[in-house]
Amino acid sequence: MTAGNEEQEPLIQTSGDHQRVTYNTSPTNSNSPEGTPRNSGGEITLSIPTPNKTYGAIGGAEKVTYTWADINAFATESRSRSRGWCPMWRGSNNRMYQQRKQLLKNVNGAAYPGELLAIMGSSGAGKTTLLNSLTFRTPGGVVASGTRALNGQPANPDALAALSAYVQQQDLFIGTLTVREHLVFQALVRMDRHIPYAQRMRRVQEVISELALTKCQNTVIGIPGRLKGISGGEMKRLSFASEVLTDPPLMFCDEPTSGLDSFMAQNVIQVLKGLAQKGKTVVCTIHQPSSELYAMFDKLLIMADGRVAFLGSPDQATEFFKELGAACPPNYNPADHFIQLLAGTPGREEVTKHTIDTVCTAFAKSEIGCRIAAEAENALMYQRKITSGWADAAWTGTTAMRTRRSPYKASWCAQFRAVLWRSWLSVTKEPMLIKVRFLQTIMVSILIGVIYFGQNLDQDGVMNINGAIFMFLTNMTFQNIFAVINVFCSELPIFIREHHSGMYRADVYFLSKTLAEAPVFATIPLVFTTIAYYMIGLNPAPERFFIASGLAALITNVATSFGYLISCASSSVSMAASVGPPIIIPFMLFGGFFLNSGSVPPYLSWISYLSWFRYGNEALLVNQWTGVEQIACTRENFTCPASGQVVLDTLSFSEKDFTMDVVNMILLFIGFRLLAYIALVLRTRRAK
């Protein structure tokens, strides 16, 4: 604050649980909020809640007052995407941006403990943009600025994440888990690592009881169209339960009633109201609440064209709009009235703009608006102190909020155990992965065994056996690639949300997911080989059977690794399914069955070095024909291969390359897995 050319700091006096902040409001004070009510002494005195200290039990702080000041947001595009750009500012990644549209305009506000604050407005009014800005979750293409304060202290993303929970509009779950299993997993990765396991389980049971999930706690969550589970209202309450496990003092909810009927919507808002009554600060966005829901809100923040049209209680809103000559008609939903008053009407854009300007300006100059502006100024004052390096450090929570901490509550090992447990449950409970795949394997192996049944070591048998072995290879490849090609695509939104919430690391997720499915991919090739091997009449030596089984398992895992790579690099399941076959076919062509390995053009030889078809086919054929000294010739006037060595020479394969074939497949297995993990990390960073 300034008075003339000399800066005057506000007088702060602490009494009980409030601070009395006195500002000098002399006529020359240019920084006083416009329209601020002044007392006769040229001062304004505010009573602001004293910052609470944090506690280390399960949650963050006892009570949190969240204030924000001068929040602005712009839809932007980078310099590389525009022509004739005009640089407006530099983003955090040091790129130049071009202004396109201002989404939020100098938004001030506050949310208090024990209150349910609803952010309302028509479509495009800025509700979700404001909520994203308040939670530091602005998407790509949007740049936000302004001050956010927790109990008067400037907040950063880490400090806010430590004290808050965010319930997003879309409910994302692993559908094969039960409600209780989901909450147990959440407790293992979200609660402080020093909390004993028994206390975590007690907290899970408390939350189940508090949010009326007792009856469905052992019911699977469900997968739309595949697995019937809990209802939409129970799913929304489960979203709240996941967030309140850590007992956060501050909660944000984006459109919690979206897609619910009136009864379920009222049930959900009652849950939020109950959380607020326990002393939590609850902020939610809502599009068009019914009159019953409207009456349950403690405070309303009505947005219009990115500006604050009103912030206060429902009764204050009724009085405010009545004084403006826009009173709500009797027996009419006030929420509908306020939203329709400020909503854009096609063909009346100028009238709507004038109405919005009138309402927003009137609120800014009202007593409520001036008080909010002054509280926002208090937050800005603290921000300036910290920026200049002489902030008041009397409050013990300041250092904690300014210190950057690891976002992960659980240790690496604890994360790994929890994610591996959940991944194993999802694998064993997924009917498509276990029952259908084993049935498919048995049917295909019997079919191949019947078609190639009882081959003899003669001229025709050589061709048929080579074809059967390549069918082994092809089936192990396509069956397993298409089994995992959607693994990471389908779960990517869940992983990104949980990873960015600080629940577990990317390497933990990738390693756990692949290990949980490893037993399946080790068993399936063994089942396939056991059924078809002796039906076809392959090399009967026991050691040859076990070598063939090991090679089939190795080929399966290489193909699975390549499927993981496609899945991690694809943005959707349909894209992965479309991209997979065109990429696999070139590798198959260089496998030595359709094209002799010795006739591969030099400029395409690099593809053959990446083909597990080549290494797998050669290793299986070497295992089959090594030691075969005599092959019968059943046709006259034809040159017959006299031994297994001749068969290998004809295909340009060599027994000496067997070891390198195995080594190369192991290297491909490791390389594809590593590339898949890198692709997953890159996708995660792009989605941040």
UniProtKB/TrEMBL annotation:
<comment type="similarity">
    <text>Belongs to the ABC transporter superfamily. ABCG family. Eye pigment precursor importer (TC 3.A.1.204) subfamily.</text>
</comment>
<feature type="transmembrane region" description="Helical">
    <location>
        <begin position="573"/>
        <end position="595"/>
    </location>
</feature>
<keyword id="KW-0608">Pigment</keyword>
<feature type="transmembrane region" description="Helical">
    <location>
        <begin position="510"/>
        <end position="533"/>
    </location>
</feature>
<dbReference type="Pfam" id="PF01061">
    <property type="entry name" value="ABC2_membrane"/>
</dbReference>
<feature type="transmembrane region" description="Helical">
    <location>
        <begin position="438"/>
        <end position="455"/>
    </location>
</feature>
<keyword id="KW-0813">Transport</keyword>
<dbReference type="InterPro" id="IPR050352">
    <property type="entry name" value="ABCG_transporters"/>
</dbReference>
<dbReference type="GO" id="GO:0005524">
    <property type="term" value="F:ATP binding"/>
</dbReference>
<dbReference type="GO" id="GO:0030659">
    <property type="term" value="C:cytoplasmic vesicle membrane"/>
</dbReference>
<keyword id="KW-0547">Nucleotide-binding</keyword>
<dbReference type="InterPro" id="IPR017871">
    <property type="entry name" value="ABC_transporter-like_CS"/>
</dbReference>
<keyword id="KW-0472">Membrane</keyword>
<keyword id="KW-0067">ATP-binding</keyword>
<feature type="region of interest" description="Disordered">
    <location>
        <begin position="1"/>
        <end position="52"/>
    </location>
</feature>
<feature type="transmembrane region" description="Helical">
    <location>
        <begin position="545"/>
        <end position="566"/>
    </location>
</feature>
<protein>
    <recommendedName>
        <fullName>Protein white</fullName>
    </recommendedName>
</protein>
<dbReference type="GO" id="GO:0016887">
    <property type="term" value="F:ATP hydrolysis activity"/>
</dbReference>
<dbReference type="GO" id="GO:0031409">
    <property type="term" value="F:pigment binding"/>
</dbReference>
<dbReference type="InterPro" id="IPR003593">
    <property type="entry name" value="AAA+_ATPase"/>
</dbReference>
<feature type="transmembrane region" description="Helical">
    <location>
        <begin position="467"/>
        <end position="489"/>
    </location>
</feature>
<feature type="domain" description="ABC transporter">
    <location>
        <begin position="89"/>
        <end position="330"/>
    </location>
</feature>
<dbReference type="InterPro" id="IPR005284">
    <property type="entry name" value="Pigment_permease/Abcg"/>
</dbReference>
<dbReference type="Pfam" id="PF00005">
    <property type="entry name" value="ABC_tran"/>
</dbReference>
<keyword id="KW-1133">Transmembrane helix</keyword>
<dbReference type="InterPro" id="IPR003439">
    <property type="entry name" value="ABC_transporter-like_ATP-bd"/>
</dbReference>
<dbReference type="GO" id="GO:0005886">
    <property type="term" value="C:plasma membrane"/>
</dbReference>
<feature type="transmembrane region" description="Helical">
    <location>
        <begin position="662"/>
        <end position="682"/>
    </location>
</feature>
<dbReference type="InterPro" id="IPR013525">
    <property type="entry name" value="ABC2_TM"/>
</dbReference>
<dbReference type="InterPro" id="IPR043926">
    <property type="entry name" value="ABCG_dom"/>
</dbReference>
<feature type="compositionally biased region" description="Polar residues">
    <location>
        <begin position="11"/>
        <end position="39"/>
    </location>
</feature>
<dbReference type="InterPro" id="IPR027417">
    <property type="entry name" value="P-loop_NTPase"/>
</dbReference>
<dbReference type="Pfam" id="PF19055">
    <property type="entry name" value="ABC2_membrane_7"/>
</dbReference>
<keyword id="KW-0812">Transmembrane</keyword>
<dbReference type="GO" id="GO:0140359">
    <property type="term" value="F:ABC-type transporter activity"/>
</dbReference>
